[in-house]
Amino acid sequence: xxxxxxxxxxxxxxxxxxxxxxTFVVLGWILISPIFTKKNIIKELKIKYRQQERQAQENxx
Amino acid sequence: xxxxxxxxxxxxxxxxxxMSGKMIPWFMWSFVLSLVVGLYYGLFVAPPDYQQGxxxxxxxxxxxxxxxSMFVYVIMAVSAxxxxxxxxxxxxxxASVSAPIGAAFTFLALVTGSLxxxxxxxxxxxxxxRLTSExxxxxxxxxxxxLQAAIEDPRNAARAGSILLIVGVVNIPIIHYSVEWWxxxxxxxxxxxxxxxxxHISMLIPLMVMATSFKLYYAASVLxxxxxxxxxxxxxxxWVKEIVENES
Lengths: 61, 248
Prior knowledge:
The complex is a heterodimer of chains A (61) and B (248). With 61 residues, chain A is mainly alpha-helical.
């Protein structure tokens, strides 16, 4: 099978490749998005904890 | 009902966070490996179908996505029941972080089915039992996500969501048997039935590898989501504070 035959998919290229393409995009995004979510949560929590510490120090001092 | 202390210990958010962190790389690598093998056999090795030609190769993403759309829902409903009965926080957590993944599988099952239906049936969509019940599944997922987002208190959100999930389980056998109970354009079961699968082994093996790959994907994906969500939900505990402060 030549590469062009392979990509042609017996005339069904549009349907076959858009199915595979969409699946990869959607599942890829679902897989990597929690990496960004976790980074954001950590960033927000760092700020929150720092504020809490500052408040605790002010209350003591 | 009481659970042994050991179950509670291992299902504690902290333990879950640590253990899942160790498990994710294993799931991820076996997912990638099985994906490569499945795609190679599905796209290059498996012969074209005698009726559908090359178009049937959509099956290798469509069928695993459709199976996963139901599998994830059942996992969520079982987690919801466990969360309701035994008050296990991580069970509620698993249900809520699974929802976007399940919704994605359902969406993909519908769209790839539609892209397969156009060349084979001559239409993107028919309002028959299989397609309609799968669409209802998508609405159940979206309804659950919206419900969770609308209720501020996490315990109330978990309880309301759990009830929705458990009631919605009725839709799962309807999806599975829809092709037998009602007349439809959708083909009948060729794998998940009591008889022998009516598919040639050369087409069946890549399908099974892809289905396994999708399951491993779900395992890796759901644990990654769960870990991020645990940090958010347990942010007032000392152990989360330590983890956050040790992150660069």
